[in-house]
Amino acid sequence: MFPSRLDSPVAHDIAKAMMDGFNRHYRLFRTESARAKHRFETQDWNGQQRAQRDRIEFYDLRVKECVKRLTKEFVAHNQPMDVWEQVKLHYIGLLVNHHQPELAETFFNSVTTKILNRAYFQNDFIFVRPAVSTEYIENDEPNAKPTYLCYYPQADSMLDKVLLMVRDFDLRVPFDDLDRDAMLVLDAMKARFDHVKLRANFQFQALSTLFFRNKGAYIVGKIINGFQEMPFALPIVHNEAGKLIIDAALFGEDDLLLLFSFARAYFMVDMEIPSAYVQFLRNLMPRKPRAEFYISLGLAKQGKTLFYRDFLFHMRHSTDKFRIAPGIKGMVMLVFDLPSYPFVFKVIKDFYPPQKDTSREQIRGKYQLVKNHDRVGRMADTLEFSVAGFPRERFTDELIAEITKFAPSQLEIADTNGDGKLEVLIKHVYIERRMIPLNIYLQEAFDALRIDAQDAVAQAQLTRAVVEYGNAIKDLVAANIFPGDMLWKNFGITRHGKVVFYDYDEIEYITDCNFRKVPEPRNEEEEMSGEIWYSVAKGDVFPETFGPFLLGNPRVRAEFMRHHADLLEPDFWQQHKERIVAGHVHDVFPYERDRRFHAH
């Protein structure tokens, strides 16, 4: 119950200090995001990568700062519960007319849960649901940019409006030939519309700041013509001469879903009102949850908050049970899922077979490496939760037995709410989007081809899987990632047909590996031996030895050797390592090569 009056002498000061902490956080976050424009203009790619890594740490640092201040100035951890109830009410008052109220609520939750002893923790003290609406928030300051800009071309001014839209972003690098690129955009756009007539409300709408990631800048918006709306994104990159070009024109929800994929690094975007950006983006991609937009924009904690609210909502409106996830069981991670829910839950086991020389801390470090690294569309992002609670009645007995056997330190079953209902508490869990494991996807093709060796659909599925698998590894290599365990079961295929890696316990930087050719045997005994006769040091990798583990099926081997035989050669890996050491940053395009206007 909330207090009937606000009579604490410190509650308002605590609330104000927490809001000061959040405002400092978002100011620093926004400043770093805004600097992405200058780094893009000056082609400071290594600086861009560092900034993306550093920005991920901002939130936790600001939470720690705030907790330290509240503890020191207000002895916050010893304040009685009625004071904390008043703190929350004062904080709600401070959210009125705030431009990032949803982010400020999440920051309040983070600080509060760090300070309050969990034994006394109640939902009254945090924002379980949002207290302030994010609808129609506007920045009324005189010089403020609107969330998006509108352009109203006529039939004879289409080119001029595209040129104006691009120039409004005020990039301080000349374009190679902007008129040429704008015409290419218009030609691509016209092919996407059902009719040629311009309706009364024909317009372009573009979000008013650029989206920066890797070596690209993106204009994101939509075209409206009568009843038809078409999302679009225009990637801008530097050509070899250092001038700017519009590299492609992406149209439609599917193109944009690939651009905003969960397997890609977070964008840097300067946003005064992030909820307005999310609302605009959701209009372009209605199938994508709001949580994933916040995560794509670098606001991962807000994404987690919304994800958890969506999860609780799903739990209330479903009845199926958590089970051991289908597929080959991992040696390091225990994986379970809820059939009706499009995510899987991964728990680090307590012990591993001898060939896995690792520890819980090392595995968590690998997952953090992936979080901080450029995932180039080939590594699944994960949400990390501590002490996640689930109703016991929603777990199969087989799953409870599996966790008890392999990860007993991570499991507690208790009546935490005192309502007579048992909860399953998982102390540490990773959650990532469900994909079809690549080995299962291949097996489906094998089964169909066994029935009909000429099945064209099954052969196309097999080819697509093998080609995409090799492309995924090559993208990872270019991003300085050696997957370690490259078995098919450690990769999944998304709904867009992209192959993504999701088993991180053995990943290493390419630059930490030594790619070697297998030495020639010195005698017949070594040649006939089933054992390794040559020395292997830490970091040594022998690409020639991948074949026996990966290419046992003749059809798979034929496709692999046709498209990716170079992956079995040490020279391929060593050359990439040398380029990375020399400071080269790989070009990453979230669209196919044939979509590029100027690809050689």
Automatic annotation (TrEMBL):
Protein name in the entry: Isocitrate dehydrogenase kinase/phosphatase
GO molecular function: [isocitrate dehydrogenase (NADP+)] kinase activity; AMP binding; ATP binding; phosphoprotein phosphatase activity; protein serine/threonine kinase activity
Residues annotated to bind ATP: A325, P326, G327, I328, K329, G330, M331, K346
InterPro entries tied to this protein: AceK_kinase, AceK_regulatory, Isocitrate_DH_AceK
Catalytic activity from the UniProt record: L-seryl-[isocitrate dehydrogenase] + ATP = O-phospho-L-seryl-[isocitrate dehydrogenase] + ADP + H(+)
Keyword line: ATP-binding, Cytoplasm, Glyoxylate bypass, Hydrolase, Kinase, Nucleotide-binding, Protein phosphatase, Serine/threonine-protein kinase, Transferase, Tricarboxylic acid cycle
Catalytic residue list: D381
EC numbers on record: 2.7.11.5, 3.1.3.-
GO cellular component, one term: cytoplasm
Pfam family, one: AceK_kinase
Family statement: Belongs to the AceK family.
Function: Bifunctional enzyme which can phosphorylate or dephosphorylate isocitrate dehydrogenase (IDH) on a specific serine residue. This is a regulatory mechanism which enables bacteria to bypass the Krebs cycle via the glyoxylate shunt in response to the source of carbon. When bacteria are grown on glucose, IDH is fully active and unphosphorylated, but when grown on acetate or ethanol, the activity of IDH declines drastically concomitant with its phosphorylation.
Subcellular locations according to the entry: Cytoplasm
GO BP annotation list: glucose metabolic process; glyoxylate cycle; tricarboxylic acid cycle
UniProt-listed HAMAP family: AceK
